[in-house]
């Protein structure tokens, strides 16, 4: 996970492009001179420039807050919290860090995606997959997506959450536990982990 394979890089590139590729493209275009493309920008880079920028990571909007909302049949294992509870914690983070406005949202529920429209002032990004509607069980949902998609999109969400600046989840979720472990051992232990619940049934 620390050193991504070509496969995971491809998955992340597709997800990042779909989520905020247009925003990145607009930023690049704003840096071009007015006469572009009629007049090409021709300049040679020094050796030190090539070295310094050789390790540049793909662009993502920063600071980035990752939120994993766990609902559905997880109620059998823990008390569920509505999306509003997660956003209350997001507002708490923003009170300390006013520049936080970008959220990578990870959830299986379409109702959560729909509720994002009521939160003005936040930029929500998420994977482009079909989500659960109604009382569909997790196994049935995964079957409906197919083996490849149901495996790939959680992997993308996991890696995006691990690299985000802040994280909000639920202590009762094993997935959130894994994300927190990845973040804590990857240099983000001081960023903390805000949880919507402090109880679990196991």
Kindly report the spatial arrangement of strands forming the biggest sheet.
Answer: 3-2-1-4-5
Low-confidence stretches: none
Q: Please summarize the sheet with the most strands.
A: 5 strands, parallel
SSE class: alpha/beta
Morphology: globular
Element pattern in H and E:
HHEHEHEHHEHE
Beta strands, count: 5
Rounded mean pLDDT is: 88
Q: What is the gyration radius calculated from CA atoms?
A: 19 Å
Oligomer: single chain
Distance between the termini: 28 Å
Helix segment tally? 7
Helical fraction: 40-55%
| Share of residues in strands | 5-15%
What would you say this structure looks like, in words?
α6 (147-163) packs across α7. The mean pLDDT is 88. With 202 residues, the protein is an alpha/beta fold. It has helices spanning 6-30, 47-53, 83-96, 110-115, 138-145, 147-163, 174-184, and strands spanning 64-69, 102-107, 123-125, 166-169, 194-195. Helix content is 44%, strand content 10%. The chain has a 5-stranded parallel β-sheet with strand order 3-2-1-4-5, sandwiched between helices.
């Amino acid at each position: 996970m620390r050193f991504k394979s070509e496969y995971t890089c491809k998955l992340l590139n597709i997800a990042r492009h779909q989520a905020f590729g247009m925003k990145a493209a607009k930023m690049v275009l704003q840096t071009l001179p007015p006469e572009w493309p009629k007049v090409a920008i021709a300049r040679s880079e020094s050796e030190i420039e090539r070295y310094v920028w050789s390790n540049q990571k793909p662009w993502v909007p920063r600071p980035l807050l990752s939120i994993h909302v766990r609902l559905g049949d997880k109620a059998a294992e823990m008390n569920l919290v509505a999306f509003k509870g997660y956003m209350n914690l997001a507002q708490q983070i923003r009170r300390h860090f006013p520049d936080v406005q970008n959220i990578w949202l990870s959830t299986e529920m379409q109702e959560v995606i729909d509720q994002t429209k009521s939160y003005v002032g936040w930029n929500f990004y998420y994977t482009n997959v079909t989500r659960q509607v109604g009382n569909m069980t997790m196994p049935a949902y995964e079957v409906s997506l197919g083996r490849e998609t149901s495996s790939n999109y959680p992997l993308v969400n996991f890696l995006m959450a691990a690299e985000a600046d802040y994280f909000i989840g639920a202590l009762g979720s094993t997935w959130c536990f894994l994300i927190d472990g990845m973040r804590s051992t990857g240099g983000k232990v001081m960023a903390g982990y805000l949880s919507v619940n402090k109880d679990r049934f196991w």
